[in-house]
Design a protein that fits this description.
The structure is a single chain. The chain has 351 residues and is α/β, with parallel strands linked by helices. The chain folds into two domains: 167 residues, 3-Layer(aba) Sandwich (Rossmann fold); 174 residues, Rossmann fold (3-Layer(aba) Sandwich), CATH 3.40.50. It has 15 helices and 13 strands. A seven-stranded parallel sheet has the order 3-2-1-4-5-6-7. A six-stranded parallel sheet has the order 10-9-8-11-12-13, with helices on both faces. The longest helix is centred in the C-terminal third of the chain and has 18 residues. It starts with a strand and ends with a helix.
């Protein structure tokens, strides 16, 4: 099969990693793959380094020109972002390929869902990365296939791990790690308040927050200063290899208010870490019933109590982490994800 994936995101987050995983797996299975990606962006650079053909695009207009020029060159065109699917929906009448859209979000205002229905319905197959991400399309009468995102073990670089330990003063501390952009939907302010509560009974605790700046960055840094948490909450910025940060952790924490799946939680589970996460979206699917601890979104007190339990019950928490590790290794593997997409593409082309 000749397969073109579309992803013009400027950064490197879960969706971009999944795009690259899928392309690499499809190519290994013998298919001809290509990628339209943001010119000069991290996805384009990593795909090129992996030997994948990349069509660099500066924006939606450039992508539209590419799709028109390539409309007879591909059997499947797969939009990995909502922006790309919007473009495919408008170009649907002139495109000969089967169109696939992978939905990676689970926050839906009712009026927005109604507006999105037309666009979603233009795809020949709508894929959701979790049951939570599938809920909105199904609620408006569309079929959605669930193909979960996948993770691979993130190998840590010992030298980099030690450098981070020294840089952020982690020696002799019990370390919470979160990997999330400083954006409102990731809710760093609630996590900061939880750490503030924790330090009263666990004065050796420290949170290492790995993630790029976003719209909540200024408020998060200001709150750390206001609470005098500088010795208990450190901003590490974006880290290219999350495995280095996970190697430092005693517990992984996610305070997201919305999460279609949560690949950072998957990474932590695959590393065998005990996880405390908010009871939203895909977190529930990953951690229920006994593979992690869930807390209500926005409830810093509940998050603090659950992290305290992990810190105070190390043996039981370790067993919990091992259960999650075994589950994620089986249910969220890259080969399983790639095989599911390969089967989907084949069904569309045979139809």
């Amino acid at each position: 099969m000749r397969i073109l994936h579309l992803n013009l995101e400027k950064g490197w987050r879960g969706g971009e990693r999944q795009t690259l995983f899928t392309l690499q797996g499809l190519r290994a299975a013998g298919h001809q793959v290509a990628l339209a990606a943001r010119a000069g962006g991290p996805l384009a650079q990593r795909a090129e380094a992996a030997g994948i053909r990349v069509f660099p695009c500066s924006g939606s207009l450039a992508l539209a020109r590419l799709l028109l020029a390539q409309r007879r060159s591909h059997d499947v065109i797969h939009a990995q972002t909502a922006q790309a699917m919007s473009l495919l929906a408008f170009l649907r009448p002139v495109l000969r390929a089967a169109l696939v859209f992978t939905r990676r979000t689970a926050f839906d205002a009712p009026d927005r869902v109604r507006r999105q229905r037309w666009k979603w319905g233009r795809a020949d197959a709508l894929v959701a990365i979790s049951q939570a991400a599938a809920a909105a399309p199904r609620a408006c009468g569309l079929s959605a296939i669930v193909i979960p995102s996948a993770v691979e073990p993130q190998q840590a670089d010992p030298a980099r791990v030690e450098a981070l330990r020294r840089q952020f003063g982690l020696t002799g501390r019990r370390v919470l790690v979160t990997a999330a952009a400083l954006s409102p939907e990731k809710d760093p302010l609630t996590l900061i308040e939880a750490v503030h509560r924790l330090r009263a009974d666990h004065p050796d605790v420290i949170c290492l927050h790995c993630g790029a700046d976003g719209a909540a960055a200024d408020a998060a840094r200001a709150r750390v200063l206001a609470l005098g948490l500088q010795d208990h909450y450190r901003f590490a910025g974006f880290q290219g290899n999350v495995g280095d940060c996970l190697a430092l952790a005693d517990v992984y924490v996610s305070s997201s208010r919305f999460e279609a799946l949560g690949t950072s939680v998957l990474d932590a589970c695959l590393a065998g870490l005990p996880v405390v996460a908010t009871d939203v979206g895909g977190h529930r699917e990953i951690l229920d019933p006994d593979r992690g601890l869930l807390a209500p979104a926005g409830d810093d007190s509940a998050i603090a109590r659950r992290v305290a339990w992990v810190l105070d019950h190390a043996d039981a928490a370790r067993v919990m982490g091992q259960r999650a590790q075994a589950h994620v290794a089986q249910a969220y593997s890259v080969p399983a994800m790639v095989a599911a997409y390969q089967q989907l593409y084949g069904r569309l082309l045979r139809a």
